[in-house]
Amino acid sequence: MQTNIDDTRFNIIAQSYEYAIAKYPDARRDGDWLIEQLDAQPDETILEISAGTGFLTEQIAPQNIGGKLIVQDIAPNTLEINKTKVQAFSHLEYLLDLNELDNESCDKAVSLGGWHHMEDQIWITKTALAKVKPGGYFCVGDFADSSSIQRYFDEVVDNITSTGHQGLFPSYSRMINLGRFARASKTVVEEFDVPFAFDSDEEIGEFFQKVFALEQDHLDTAKDIRKYFEIKEEDGKLKVMVPYIYAKFYK
Fold this sequence. Notes:
By secondary structure, this protein is of the alpha/beta class. 35% of the residues lie in helices and 25% in strands. Strands 1, 2, 3, 4, 5, 6, 7 and 8 form an 8-stranded mixed beta sheet that branches. The N terminus is likely disordered.
């Protein structure tokens, strides 16, 4: 059994998504909590689940050069893009199916942004913890349920993409229960808004239009973002406040 993400959707939107990430490399900071909590060490074997085109991969790779970074995703197109971004590193391995990986073969595991597409979140939590050694942990970050981003996906994004966009968004209670079902020794959950920073409404519109491959003009996207999200003006930037939830499951 693989992570239940719609690989067709991600194969289709990979180039559009990567365009947004490459053009606005400093917009996203949603990986910061995970990188801090993961605390990757030079000699460790790290498993990244649902790695996509490599946003988090690029940050982890320099931290465990003496070990191994196993990069998993079920969408081949996204993994090909991922490979090109970290080709300077020789300690990475790629796989499509987590079942190809031996249990207790990794020190830690991490996943960012793909969680809400995983239909069997109990299975993936159990599987991730099975792959890490005793004393290890699995860190997850994704958009929060019952929030502005969840409503935006359900009411807007799902209706203006060729592939749709439906997901099971995580909540505090869901993460606690998933830890219990997976027999985690401890589960820590944090929930807060992550600022996505831009110079103008036009940049906001282009980023979100491209990152979700929306079938609408980027100016209309900017209007929708202002409708659904809190936007703060700080330090000369427009900061779109995106609700996230993070969990750390200890084995």
